Amino acid sequence: MAGRTGVHRKAYGYEWDGVEKLPYKEDGRALFKSITRQTLFSDPDLDGELRYFEVAPGGFSTLERHEHMHAVLILRGRGRCLVGNEVQTIETRDLITVPALTWHQFRASEGEPLGFLCMVNAKRDKPQLPTEEELARLKADPGIASFLGSEAKHSTA
Ligand code: MN
User: What does the alpha-carbon distance between residue 103 and residue 81 come to, in Å, rounded to a whole number?
Assistant: First the structure.
């Protein structure tokens, strides 16, 4: 992450000097595809964190929900997102609010990476994955079923 003081210059592409590019999640319990994570701002004096996620073409984030909310700015590319019961197309400079305890997933288009800034609470709860029942309830909506495709996985926890 960026240090406590000073300017961190943009580097090649969507990377920044002194900011580490990490795998999306450390644990293997959630299903996702082709995402990297960079924490741009995280500081004990700040109650929030700003992260940059990049989903490769055709990739997607975990289908999850949690008590903390997200404020998202699409910085690069296009794709679709599920927020609650709505599937929407998204593109560069769109803003997306994900309220508390709302199912969400981001999917990149096939043509280009989908990059977005995501603001969250510094202290936050762990994401929940859908149970088999919850997934079936989501998929009862044909639009959501088509969005999720065959890849959606329920929690085994
Ligand atoms: Mn989330």
Answer: 10
Confidence of residue 157 (pLDDT cuts 50, 70, 90): very low
Q: How far is CA 30 from the centre of its chain?
A: 13
Each residue of 140-154: pLDDT tens digit? 999 999 999 877 555
| Ligand 1 geometric centre to CA of 60 (Å) | 12
Q: For the chain, how many residues are written?
A: 157
pLDDT tens digits for range 64-87: 999 999 999 999 999 999 999 999
Please list, in sequence order, all residues whose beta carbon lies within 8 angstroms of the beta carbon of residue 61, skipping any fewer than 6 positions away. 24, 32, 35, 53, 55, 104, 105, 106, 107
Q: What is the DSSP string of 15-29?
A: -BTT---EES-SSSS
25 C-alpha to ligand 1 centroid (Å): 11
Active site residue: 50, 63, 118, 152, which one?
118
The yes-or-no answer on residue 118 being catalytic is yes
User: What separation in Å is there between the alpha carbon of 67 and the centre of ligand 1?
Assistant: 9
The structure's pTM equals 0.88
